[in-house]
Batch of 4 targets.
Target 1
Amino acid sequence: MREALYIAGKELRSYFVSPVAYVIVAFWLVATGFFFYASISLGQQATLRDVFGVVIILLLLIAPALTMRLLSEESRTGTLELLLTAPVKDWAVVLGKFLGAFVLYAAMMLLTIAYPLLLVLYKGNPDWGPIWSGYLGLLLVGMLFLSVGLFASALTSNMMVSAVIAFVLLLLLFVISQLSQNVGPGLGDFLTKISVGQRFDPFQRGVVDLRDIVFFVSVSALVLFLTVQVVEARRYRA
Amino acid sequence: MIEVEHLTKYYGPNAALRDVTFNVEQGEILGFLGPNGAGKTTTMRIITGYLPPSSGTARVAGFDVAEKSLDARRHLGYLPEMVPLYTDLTTYEYLDFRGRLCGLHHGRERKARIYEVMDQLNLGDVSNRLIGQLSRGYRQRVGLAQALIHNPDALILDEPTVGLDPVQITEVRNLIKELGKNHTIILSTHLLPEVSMVCDRVVIINRGRLVALDTPLHLMQSGAQSQTVRVEVAGRPTSILETLRGVPAVEKAVVLQQAVTGDGVAPEGAAVSFASESSLPEGSYQYQVEGKVGSEIRPELAAAVIGAGYELLEMRSVRLSLEDIFLRVIAQGAEEDEDELADEFGGEDTLDEDLEPEAEVVRPRMRTRPTPTEAASTPQTVRVAGRRVRR
């Protein structure tokens, strides 16, 4: 576990050595800022509900950008060999990489707290319930998206390929509920249940359901588990 | 310290390693020799726990690398072939990271150890530089530093001197010798002088097979079953050659044309070619004489030359270099592969009896000597022939 934290720390440092993190964070702030402005000026309501709805689409791009190089770059440059021959378990490597990306993501979320604070500052008197639940929902969605991104990163040694795979997988997860209407009741119900959009919707409205939380946490754990399997399988292929 | 038993590794249907067995004792430096693609890196990757073997076992400090992988890895430092490092960290940050991963959890101890290792490898100047900006030599040393950071019992170094300039190569070799006092080291290389300089014992593998395992000295002696002598004699080459060939114990005698520098002395390791005998004018030349197996030819040779009235200017025995041995062993391995192939088609399973003795000391069989023209066209042989080995 300690090793996972070391790896997370190293990943965070690496983010800010290259311009990648700065570009992503800047893009994130500009985009969310614009959506916030548009939503408030059009809707004339002190709520972030619409912003959350758009932000989750933004995450389809942000998550792969954050995770694309985590494992693929290591396998391209060969540093994975040293990492996997250190006295560290494979799952600690994967968990560390995930945590590194997740902490950066959480920090990016924290920066957007400025928007609801602006509402307070201008006497908008927002309802904090849906705002907190929306943030919680975004953290959970981010968790799932980042694990999918990391999974994609473990599959290939090319980070662009990994980004594209991650994006396609996330898009599938996101639109799966649209599919559900065409495949009959049984499978359709199931697809609706695993649809990220459907699961996120209650958070947006201020409803925190334990089942939704369990959904996001367990699916993320499953994806991370698969990622560990892929990393282990790499040893047999290498 | 490191025990490798019957290691076999398949990549798909291709065998990269076939039944490789060897031990490395505590405090020993083992050289790992073989042509590219022979299975050196595969073996090292299995020992370091990066690759699982298809069958067989490897143990480090008594820990099976497959079952007690983490314990085995704690006793190992590894420098992979291309020295993969995080280019976006500074030297200090990187060593700090590796130190943490390798179990140096205590902050102050870790810091002290990092400075100790940086001192040992002369990395103090670059401790705050990004690894991406460092030269090849520095990176190599950072790579060694990370392998050493947790003071492991055993070091696995995959071609540690590749891509370095001669000064750096000497530095790294001295360093490895120094490290060999406290660590068990496996060192792979395709530079043969490196092995004779640094290693206590040598493993030669070819096509995934262990073909020789012995000390460099023994390997060189075992290859030299016949004596080769270099003589310098003044006179007419054709008649001198006749005299030399007239000695009963002489198998073969040829005249050498040697590149001579301005002051008339052939430089060390100068290019030598075999001259055609008839075209040479009278003068002093070097001749290479090869004796029959197991005979001492020098006294007879000297007597014959002087008895025929020629001036004997110099006589010395030429020792086979490790390079010769290596080429022979490799060539022999290739022949055996073909033999075995034939055996397999014959339906006989000679694999086991074939391999058992090889696990111990393997005495490379003598191949027929290359003819002068062959030898002249093989740069290695020629260079070796030109090396002065005085007795």
Note: Residues 128-155 of chain A form the longest helix (28 residues).
Target 2
Amino acid sequence: MHKKWFTLLPVLLVAAAFLFVGCQKGGTAKVRVKVKEWDIPFLNCLTGPIASIGEFLEWGAERAAKEINDAGGISGKPVKIIGVDTALDPQKGVAEMSRIVQTSLVALGPVPEPVIMAAAPIAVENEMMTMTATTSLEYAEQFFPWSISWFPKTEDRLPPLVTAWAELNPEMKSAVQFLGNYGPWPGMAAAHKVGLEKAGVKVLSDVEVPQDAVTFGPLVVKALNQKPDGIVISCWPEKAAKIVQELKSRGWKNMGRILLFSSADDAALYSTGGAALNGAIIYNYINVDVDTPRWNAFKEAYAKDHNGMQPPSLSTNYYDAVYMIKEAIEKTGVTGDPKKLKEERKKIADYCRDVKNFQGLLFNWDMAGGVPTNKPTYLFEIQDGKKKLVKEIRA
Amino acid sequence: MQVFLAQLINGLSLGSIYVLLVTGFNLLLLVAMIIHFSYPQVVVFSMYIAWVVLRYTGNSIPLAVLASVGSSILINLASAPIFQKIMKNREEVDINSTMVVSLGIGMIITDVLSHGFNNGLPIAFPQEVVGEAALFRVGLISLQYGQVASLAVGALAVSGVFLLLYKTRSGRAFRAIAEDPSGARLVGIPLLSTGLQSYALSGLLGGLIAVLLALMLGYASPGLGEQVAHKVLAVSIIAGLGNLPGGLVVGLALGILEALVQGYISGSWSNGIAFVVLLLVVLIRPRGLFGIKL
Amino acid sequence: MPLLLYYFLSITAINILMSWALYLPYRVAHLHFLTVANMAISGYLSGWLVQSLRLPFGVALLAGFAAGTLVGYAVSLFIGEAPTFTVVIVGFTFIYISRTVIENTPAVGGTLGMFGLPLVWSTPEGHRWTILIILGVMLLLIGFLIHRFEHSRLGRAASAVFVDKDLATSFGVDIKKLGMLLQTFASAVAGGCGVLYGFIYRSFHLDFFTFHLVGLFMTIIFVGGYATMWGTVVAAPVLYGLSLLLPPAVASWRIVIYGAILVGVLVLKPEGFITRRLAVNVERLLSSKRKS
């Protein structure tokens, strides 16, 4: 009898130890997922004037989905990105969003701002998070807590960046800014001004770029007539490229004293501007020269699908958004049970709004109340369609 | 003074774009009685074709010009039966039907360009073709090769088309079948072949305009045609529908006005101010400044 | 009420009303694109009244109608009997001007737009029903007025002007007054639609009122049938519904499909699907059924 007991005891102890360790792993007893597949709708702009942007945003999201599925999916189930084209049409955007809120846990987009304004209120009313990862905080915060911003406050983030650029050119005492009157760009231009003035650079004027401008001689002459030492360009990518070309054709030599803003960092800038952009500085939020296997694979895949082009900075936003959703689902034990839709939507939203040390494709960051903290920004020099890191700035 | 001269040149350059497009627009009006609202989109399509040919032939300019002209002619010939069918009364200009049909054609062209070429991105013409250095530069005054070419060709195109339509037998035949097909048939003008020739002629002009715009702008995008279409229509109306010399004057004037507003007032007000001026002109002279020539 | 149904009905109603607003001046051969500018002006005005001055929605809606009427009337004084081309240019001009003014006016949100318009009722469901009821009433009222107009002397006069302006004048039709009436009425309708459009979305953005809308309403009128008011009623829901039902691979070519439909209809059925003859025959059939 005693012999039997002594034989069984170690076995019982080992079993108890396993049970104890299992319970210690954050309570992640295996979640019984109710879905066969995680469908994540993405309200995007796949046709129309900004179809080229919509294409690489979708590409980033699909890439993330592919990687996740190759690694076993979300809680063991595959994820599928359902592209929903709104073609910049708010009429379509509201109809699609009203379909999405019936069953979806979370949505990506909408893109761009007019569709956000029309469709995001529907998500808010239905208490579903919609991740508007390409718009400014000024738009995203209107829909808190059912949205998160991918960008910090403009007035906090941009001035140090522009100051850093001005400090690279200490002989620069004055600047002119080309401004496209669209969405949050006037606010960004105002933030640029603050940064320049902090560095002792006087902003002589803002030269407004009409949305349908096809030639840029008049605007460039107006700018150059003021004899600025530096130029800041805050307008549409293709127009920004043409402005740079026009500046060069009128004798502008010091390319390092041209600063292009982040919204101009798009394939259209490089396909229009080509070698004329060489030497110009552009700021943005991802550093393409980071050397990690994950990022290198992303870059290689992007170049393969896009004629050798480097990934634009926004291409990683929805890639990261998909991974953030994955993390939210797995860490909060979301099951996809339709009966728990409301509760699980809240779980995902609450998680994303205050996620800590989220491991993005290029850097880690925290969210506080839906606003990212500690995200870096970078100054790059453009050379042959590629960006070379000049400086990293953290606000 | 230097700034003013520079803006004047900029204005003439911008105006020459309008002149070229309005001339092609007016030609179609005169030979076929159609308001082709999306004529600029057809021209942009031809620019894209030229770009593709340049890419695949190592920048062969003659082939690109041929391709551009060829595509423009083909589109015109393909759309000819559509326009002829929907016009209810061929002696008059049916702005409504032809405008709406051309709107539809424009929608198709713009979307095909967004889908089918360069992933929807703008295209840039090679620097070797466009030319990088200015022909002439003094201070802020700068003259590019493309600007000179389009201004010169614009003026020549207007003169050439005017002479062709009003001083040659073929031109009179084109106008006759547009204005009075029955009468034209009565006097022995072959309707089908003459009609096809007239559409082909406007296609030829469209292809050449595409090449000039490529030289001058150095780029194109799917939305480029839409951006100028309203102004092209406005210039034609303000000048007087079908009025070729009027189109030249008003086109250049609009370009200069826009350049001066952008240069001295504000870029974001340039469209508003330009259209207000156009509006005032059209209210005072509803038949256009120089009269309708249909 | 299912959300999708609400948006489908409300946006279709707006499209019908706005297409009617284009249809009416077109009865005298005027393409009155000013109506799109009216939408923007009245819409933003109402938004400002509600958000900044805290006026009730009803007052803002009435102000929207009033603004549309005033602008339409003032402009019609100059273009009531103008040639078609002039009316087209006026429309374009006002679209450009209204956009430029709005984007340079911080009080109405400028380029950012106007966010968070309040509910017009205490609950979201109530808000939706209120909007739908208002739209329904507008559809019935305006539809009734247009129907009466078409069967009146004025309607016949308009048809005469459309066919032959000079002949109509010789028969004593006052073209200017008729043009002014139709343009003013159209602008009034557009003003109200602009307000409701924004309150459907609960926001305003400049890109809600672009030339794309001009193309949309023209497509509805010409595909549905420009000779009667009923063509719009048929085409608006079909075209909107089509865009929602197309599978994703096909939907990406939506614009090409619309363009092809537009061209195809104009070539094969120049008057549109609902022709005047068809409308008259249906009306006769219905009235004979009523009598029997």
Note: The mean pLDDT of chain C is 92.
Target 3
Amino acid sequence: MSGAAPGDVLSPDALEARLRAIGAERYHHRHPFNVRMHEGRLTRDEVRTWALNRYYYQTRIPVKDSLIVSKAGDAAFRREWVQRIHDHDGEREGDGGLALWLRLAEAVGCDAAEVERQEHVLPGVRRACDAYVELVQTSDLLTSVAASLTEMFAGDIMAVRIAAFEKHYPWVEAGGLAYFRSRTQQAPRDAAWGLRYVREHATDATSQARAAAALERKCDILWSLLDAVERACARPRLAPHAQLRFDSALERWLCVLPERAVALGGSGRDILERCTGDETSEAIARALAARPGAGPHARDEVHDFLEQMARHGVLRFLPAGAARAGEAATARPLAADTGARAPDGPATDGCPHAGAEPAAGASRTARRDGPQ
Amino acid sequence: MTAPRPFNLVAELSYRCPLRCPYCSNPLDHASVRDGLDADDWTRAFREAAELGVVHVGLTGGEPSVRRDLEPIVAGGAAAGLFTHLVTAGLPLDPERLARLQALGLRSVQLSLQDAAPEASDRIAGTACFDAKLAIARAARRLDMPLVLNVVLHRDNLDHLEAIIALARELDAERLELANVQFHGWARHNRDALLPTRAQLDTAARLVARERRRPGPDGSGGGRPELVYVLPDHWSERPKPCMGGWGRKTIVIAPDGLVQPCHEARSLPGIELWNLRERPLRACWEDAPGMRAFRGEDWMREPCRSCPERARDFGGCRCQAFALQGDAAATDPACALAPGRDRMLALREAASRSGWHYRGDPTAR
């Protein structure tokens, strides 16, 4: 990180270096899920879950690009940028990036119609993608273009991915990889154009800082998308230190943690009791959603609850394919088990499973300083 | 008012400590306070605390691991159903003993660090201890116990904050508490030498904001460790909700069995607190005159009495009010509205003297 203090104006080269450093540090090529994908260690279930969910991201891209076009007063800009919409939507039904993604989804074993309906998109993925559209919606043109500069890093990741799929996932029909191939061409072209624009237009410290922040935010969004996918396929297990106990005065179950406690409501305790490292998050979510009396959004609520608990450090997630619960100690817990990188602040309201504010008064002690 | 339900118990097992930090918050006369409770007494205290509604017990000191009977004490906390947490300086604890304590029911560890580098850290602690601390931090993570690090910040280590945060990240801490020094106990002795400068605090606040957004080694983990950054009172506008309110959430039991609302209440004049060796914990918590003295709002005067913030900060710290105003019922001068606030503001100018006095006696008994 260059750590430029506000007030320093960077040269275009220094700005580009700063943006590239952000990618090197935060782009999702380093996400454990992508690392495992490229090492050939994803299960089929994980590949499918990823393809289904990532489709939702693909659908948001042309929406985002339309918003960007709508912000541009310059015809040359629009002419260039509208090409991206065509790339994704195609010139006619059945071609373009979206259609290619559906082919990929089919090739990995998804039902294309189900993918297209977007019913089973994970709530964390939906939030991440919607946050991207909202970022563009509420930002100026320059910031929006800067957010799209993750494309600078996309070309490389696509090349790695094609090689990885050919080598490690021979069960995926080769034609399914057409999307990746198309992006190895488009992403560098788009990135070069976007980068030139940002270099030319981010000429003061404020706009440069905004551009860098937008790119960081975009990286975080991509990261949290994979967090959600990885968590859904992983098997949550209650952290050994977490203490589940019934509080007779509050008439609530508490999950007690270092210096705080979370009051559980509704089915929160039922969910945590199933977190034994044996079942995936998705399996737990579907099982609870199938219970009599479960609401229409029960599956999503379980996923949200698990994400919230992960953020509190309550859960360890054993990656799909890792050792079973008994051998848990040797399994590398996911980075996500600390609740890294949720796109929004702790979403505690509206989840029927947890009144996630610490139980009244049970939050941290007001210890003044060290033990000495 | 009737006594509220306490949620936390701070069990000060002993004021003995191998460290000699110049900002120690133990009372100045700590050497005269004996370890008056044995493991059975503590176990009774934990059971009675659980009956009162306590959820967490923090085993602290001084240094709790100077107690040879820490094992049965931990087991007593676990048997009472309390979430049992160890607040340690890292020695004379050792990794094997930590593993034994975990097997007996210890769930998490808070470890103090004095600075990021061995020499600087040992210099503040007044004894060689840095390596022992790191060994405990690593052992805790190997045992999959959540690790909270606590670093008291002051003029001598504030400039090393970036390295401190990097160390916490390397040690895989769940939380890093960065508490600017407060002037209780021994720290009052060294106030002028410890006071941070405004420039240091401004730099630190910027650094913390930046570090909160920084990803972890694999690009993940913005937000780990959670950074808790506490401004010193003389740069704040509002008082801190000391202990979450006097006699409201937290019971502190001193090594000699005195049941207190905070670490230092016994040093206030005219405060009658009761001892666990003489009465049940419930009586000590609910009925001791000193415990009731500042419970609730009836004791408050203006500007607290009519202040909309009173339900949030409970009038601040009684001990600080006494230290600076000479009146424990006065508004904490950490509050911008307090009469006598000028005494607090004077601290902003006082960051001048250097050199400190180590806490008196490293292993006194």
Note: Residues 235-365 of chain A form one domain.
Target 4
Amino acid sequence: MNTSETDSELWLCLNFIHLPVEVFSRQQMETPVVVLNRQRVMSMNSAAEALGIRLASSMNTAYTISEQIVSFERDEKKEFATLEHLAQWAYQFTPSVVIRAPQCLLLEISGCLKLFRGLDNLKQQIREGLDKLGFTATVGVNGTPLAAQCFAQARLADNRGDIETSLAPVAIHHLQIDARILESLQQMGIADCHQLLALPLDGLNRRFGVFFTDYLQRLTGRKPDPQKFITDKPRFNSEISFLSDVTNLESLVFPMKRLLGELHDFLRGRQLQVNQFSFRLAHRSHPPKTFNVMLANPDNDPAMFLMLTQLKLDRIDDMPEVDSLSLTARHFSDMEAPSGDLFHGTRFQQKDGSRHSKAEAAKAVELINMMTARLGPQACFGLALANDHRPELAWRPVALNTRPEAVQFEETNARPLYLLARPSMLESAGDLPRMAGPLTLLQGPERIDFGWWDDGEVSRDYFVARHACGALYWVYRQLSNNQWYLHGIFS
Amino acid sequence: MTEPLNNLLKATGLWRASRIDCDYKRYPSSGFAALDAELPGSGWPVDGVTELLHDQYGIGEFRLLAPSLARLSQAQARWLLLVCPPYIPYPPALAQAGVDLSRIVISQPRSPRDYLWVLENALASQSCSAVIAWPGRILDKQIRRLQVASRTGNTWCILFRPEAAGINASPAELRIRLRPGQPRHDNSALEVRILKRIGGWKSGDIRLAFADQLHRPMPDFSELVVHQADATALESMTLPDTVAINRRTYEYQ
């Protein structure tokens, strides 16, 4: 995908300067948190900074300053996962999002400025969104991806005009170039881009190699710079780590609410719905615990998500402590756009002839959701007819969110309202069945001889039988061995 | 005794207390005229707990409800919830009775706690037109909770209970005892007696006839012999093992 040819291109770079620490702390201000790399502090939050801890100091130094400091070992895998999550989050602003590891996101925003009513509004919204997520980023805007990234790192004002002019005052150490080249440039007495870009390209090419001049050309936009945008394979994964272990599962509700809110925004940005998501509770010294929340119908309602999650959470009793919580959703479906009621709450005749209001339908789904969440997906089901003459196969249980196709087959013979799951064998006296008393045959025989082509062949004579106590049963005689069975009850 | 009373009722503006509700509360018909005449509001209630007491499966206890279930399933876009039915509610028979199968939900909670949780939440959720359950043993206070929930949710709650439960009082609004009735012609019958109702005393035995033709005798061309139900067996009736009501105890806090 190459959009670099268009002149009006505008790039916004988000540089997550505190990413290593924010993957753990999510901007929790009160507790000082530091992240270590080879026993040295490489990132910290503002609380730690306020205490006077400096980068590259050792952990011992940090502890002498304060005992409350929480430290984590740097986790680059987690950083990249978080960056991917943030990229999916940024997808709500523009479809052209590029991940620039280790800590940058590039957004091509020329197409969405009008939607968000100008650059300032867009930046404002991005800032507010990131605040809510608990991440901080510096923002740079320029005409090429590399220049935007450079602006974000140097924290320079937005530029929407000529790229080369805007780059002129930038000091060269803000460019993403090799330390060796940087050093020789500085030795040459070159301090900013104005001087650097004035140098002849072929000379630079001879001296520093083709990669460097290629970089400069892409930086200034003289050469196209194709980017690999994230594909919108919708996948949601977000994680919150706790600074101290959580022992009371009920206190997980608040972070869960936060994650579900993120899921809601994610879904809304893509006009998707979800019918299944899973939470994972983990602790470093216990096996992790995952639980799924299933919905009868795809939905995007954070309040309902939370209620169902709480129902599930109440049933977890074997997780003594938790230090991180993550939410994953993989299977999505497109949001339906039902036409709204003009007269709210009134009932309309639907196409299929039924009358119901939307509120009623929503409540019906909610009950099923609650039951599946508490009892498990197998514990509640619907009924449907099936096209088969064998009584035990003339019906099937169906999931409640599926609408089975109509079966044309209409049974005209008497059928009992209760069917035994498996026929129970009856004693017999002479030719007649007995069941703690004689059974009188009333109606029949109805011969069902069916299914020789698959393995479930039946050949039976069905009768309505009356017990001495007045109950009516549906019994049959197996033709192969003349054995009587009880199969149903005319309740 | 009743003759002068009836004359008095006709001649003057007197009315029986049992008719007090009928003017403003008119419930949908049960499908049985003889039963409608006795039920308060001339039909099955639309909410509250109704207890059907019987000891024997197969006497027509579910067929008694079939016309109402068919009507509810077609008229309302709400669920008909069956909680732990003792046997499979057989879809072909339900379809024959006119029940819209897409409205039926079967729920099978495992533990007694879940059982009552499902009952109470389904009743209160306003998303069911009727909730039918077969609780083996259920406490008074539990029924009272169900009664409250069913009022909130505007949902009819039907509990099938053993006949012995009729001896004790219950918070249910309507309690009906069911016994097998003598079949007439080709049709089976059910003998019902209302044990408790709003605005009335116990009723006498009411005989309800089904139009099921189940007693149509078998044509006599097979070698099978048709036995008539003999009176002695009727008297010494015992519960067959296979269909004895599965009595479970549910505890609920």
Note: Residues 413-489 of chain A form one domain.
